[in-house]
Structure formats: structure tokens, C-alpha cells
Amino acid sequence: MATRIGDRAVVLGASVAGLLAARLLADAYREVTVVDRDALTSAAPRRSAPQGRHVHGLLARGQQVLEELFPGLTKELAGLGVPVCDFGTGLTWYFAGRPIRKAETGLICVSAERPLLEARVRERVLALSNVRLLDRHDINGLDSSPDRGRVTGVRVQPLDGAEEVLAADLVVDATGRGSRTPRWLRELGYPQVPQERVKIDLTYTTAEFAAPLPVDPIGDGAGLVCVAGPGRPRGATLVRLRDRYALALYGLLGERPPTDPEGFLAFAKTMPVPEIHAAVEHARMITEPVSMHFPANVRHHYERVERLPDGLLAIGDAACVFNPIYAQGMTVAAIGATVLRGHLERGVPPRPREYFRDLAAVIDAPWDMAVGGDLGFPEVRGRRTLAVRMANLYMPRLQAAAAHDGTLSTAFLRAAGLVDPPQALMRPSVVTRVLRAPRRPPL
User: Across the strands, what pairs with 170?
Assistant: First the structure.
């Protein structure tokens, strides 16, 4: 961007969403400051992001955006030993206990643990001459103009010092699911931000295993994905990382994978994919299983608020938190960054209501996919529109048909990877293949 549209921008949170926002703001503002509570000196899990200790997925569209903003990042990660493969051949996808047919999709899967991915992106962002990092700082609140019509800065405090104010022309909240922006807006006199919640009561537990596995069902691919479904609210993801393997077990609707090694392995044995338990039964567990609870999908509808102050935006999980089993979080953050880029490229400070309207438009599809999938479980409470009911009848048939049809596998993975819109699965050519496929009895 040739023209600066402001002097100072502040990003709250050094998550993937925050780092992507800082990368784009650096083109539009003279100085960009990223504030985070954690000490960010290594590729270790962050204390304020305990989910970093678990298996993460970067969907195809997310990889495309990251590669666009940081050219060569995929090759750099591959050079570090990160498995890089095709989504349709390097991963084995199981639905109702059956694998869909493998097919080349042209979509790139990068099997990097989240702390490593964050560290490499952070290194690229901090190499920009006008970006600085304030780690080990608490974020206490916002500063505003006397009429409260504009956010003018952020109150921050080093963990061992006194509070200070960072003046800013623009503040971007990327603090994730713990975002306090709705509360801050109320304190400034703005309307309540409408919130949508779909409770799923998810617990996922992850353990890591030494390489090589005594029984290796992955080979030179990236992993196995066993997806939970109605009547079987348990699933698993086994992935190959740089120098080890990780198995994430999850349970919906109150199912809780144990954290003791024996219980963890026993839970793995209940998967409808026996290869998963066989792979780790006699493997050496190198980390104790660790659990995380995720109660609900949460969406903040900023686009429905009639009044918003200038100078304040939100991105990533600060705007919408997704059920992690669909691996949408980092990718939707990347897509949100493209929305921010579009507004910055206008050459004027982003207008919050217009920004949030455009952000909502790109969140709609992944939100509908995630929540629609969760509403496929009869026990999940929520509004089941005709579209949701039809999708939950159609998708199992598509996935069953994809067991023998690589074209359907590719269509599904392009939609699930947020490369194609969900409507692409309803194209006549796709529907015809689904309807012509023989029905199969339940496994």
C-alpha cells in the first residue's frame, strides 16, 4: 500500500489472527504494536492459549492465505520436517467408520503444531521494520475520546510495572475466545452485542507418541481423521508431526476422553477405526494426556449493533468461536484478515459497521457448516431450519457415496477446506453422483 492511512495501530493478542492483522496493518500504518500477556520467545505453547498443546488443523484456504501473505512459508515449514501433502491423499477421512476414496485435490495440507506455526509467522511479522511486540503485558481496557465516539488507545500494564496508555488510531482485538470487547463497548455506553451460542459440551484429550510407531497406518501422509456422528459422539485425529505423532480423542455431549494413559488408550479402542488404537497401543507415550473443555460455539454479531465507536475492530475468535473438531479457527481468522485487507486498501480508516458487515458475510458459511454439523446430533439444542435438516440428511449420503467416488471426495474436501462455498455441494453434477450411488447399510 503506497499511502499510509494512520500513524499508529495496536493489535491485542499475538495469536494467528493478531499476527495476520499486524502484517496487513503494517502496510497502512506508520507503526504497529502487538500486545500479548505471554512471554513470546520460543515455539512453545502459550499459557493464555492452552489449546496450543492440542492437535490443530490448518484448512486449505488458510494455507493459501498464509502463503499469499508470507511467500515461501509452506516450503520453509517443509524444510523443518513438517509433513506437507495433499488433503485428499495425505489424510484418510473416516465417516461412519468408513474411509472416503482418496483423490488428488491440489489442496495443500501442512501438518504443523500450532506453536511452531505461530512462531514462524511471528518471526516474519516482527521482521517488518514498523512492527513491534509488547509481550508480558496485561491489557486493562480501552481509552476513548471525551464523547466516546472513537477509541483512541489501549491501557496496558507490564507484568512487573505500572499501567501506561498506548495511543492508537486503530485498535484490533485478536484476544480470542476471552475477548472483552462486548463488555468494553457496554462500559462506553454502546448497545449489547447480540450473541449466538450452540452448546456442544466437547472435551478433547491429546497425547504425543515417539516416532516411529510400531504400527504405522499413516506412512508418508499426514494423518487419519475419524469424525464423530449422531449415535456415536466420539472421534479422533491421529497426525504425524515433525518428529513425533499426536493423537487427539474427543467426545461431544459430555463424553470425556480420560487423561490417564490406560483410560486414554481404552477410549481410543472404542473408535470405529481400529487402525487408530493399533497405532498407539504399543507406542511410547512421551507426554501425559492433557484435556481441554469447549462448552459451545459462540458468535458475536457486531454487524447487528446499530452504533459502534470508530477505531475498534475484532478478528478471529474475538468475533466467532467454532467447534474445534472442524478445524476452522485459524482458517477463518485468515479469511477475516482478507476482509481487513480489503478495507485497508480503500485508503481510509476502516469503518467498523462496514467492516463487521463484511466479516459476517465470510463467517456465515463456516458458521453454518459447524453449527449445522453439531445440530445433526439430536441432543444438541438449537434452531433447525429447513436448510439445516436437509443438509443433515444429504451430507451422510454424500460422504457414503464418496467412499467409492473420488470426485465426490474432492468436492467435499474443497467445501470443508473453505475453498469452495457449501453451495458447491449442491451443484447438479454433484447431487446426481450422490443420488446414483448405492445406499449402504450402517456399519
Answer: 9
Computed from CA positions of residues 226, 103, 245, 57, in that sequence, does the dihedral angle turn out positive or negative? Answer: negative
Cis? peptide before 212, omega within 30° of 0? yes
- Asked if 190 and 142 touch (Cβ cutoff 8 Å), the reply is no
Same domain, 149 and 223: no
Whole-angstrom distance, CA of residue 110 vs CA of residue 112 = 6
- Which residue, among 49, 26, 47, 41, has the nearest Cα to 135 in the 3D structure? 41
Domain count of the chain?
Answer: 3
Q: What is the pLDDT, as a whole number, of residue 437?
A: 85
| Contact (Cβ atoms closer than 8 angstroms) between residue 205 and residue 259 | yes
- Give the range of the structural domain holding residue 232, as residue numbers without chain letter: 198-295
Give 153's strand partners: 143, 167
Residues 6+ apart with CB under 8 A from 316: 15, 16, 17, 18, 174, 176, 329, 332, 333, 336
Question: Which of 318, 344, 363 is at the close of a domain?
Answer: 363
Q: b or e along 138-149 (b: 16 or more beta carbons within 10 Å of the residue's beta carbon)?
A: ebebbebeeeee
- Of 172, 175, 178, nearest to 24 by C-alpha is 172
**C-alpha span between 107 and 96 (Å, rounded):** 24
Task: Judge contact between 125 and 23, C-beta under 8 A.
Answer: yes
Looking at residue 90, its amino acid is G
Query: Which of 58, 52, 47 has its CA nearest to residue 330?
Result: 58
CATH code assigned at 189: 3.50.50.60
Query: What single DSSP character describes residue 270?
Result: T
Give the model confidence (pLDDT) of 107-138 as tens digits: 999 999 989 999 999 999 999 999 999 999 99
Q: pTM to 2 decimals?
A: 0.93
Query: CA angle at residue 379 from 373 to 381, to 5 degrees?
Result: 75
List of residues 6+ apart from 211 with CB closer than 8 A: 240, 243, 244, 245
Residue 29: pLDDT band by 50, 70, 90 thresholds? very high
Burial 54-81 (b: 16+ CB within 10 A, else e): bbbbbbbbbbbbbeebbeebbeebeeee
In a domain, 412, yes or no: yes
Strands 84-86, 108-110: pairing is: antiparallel
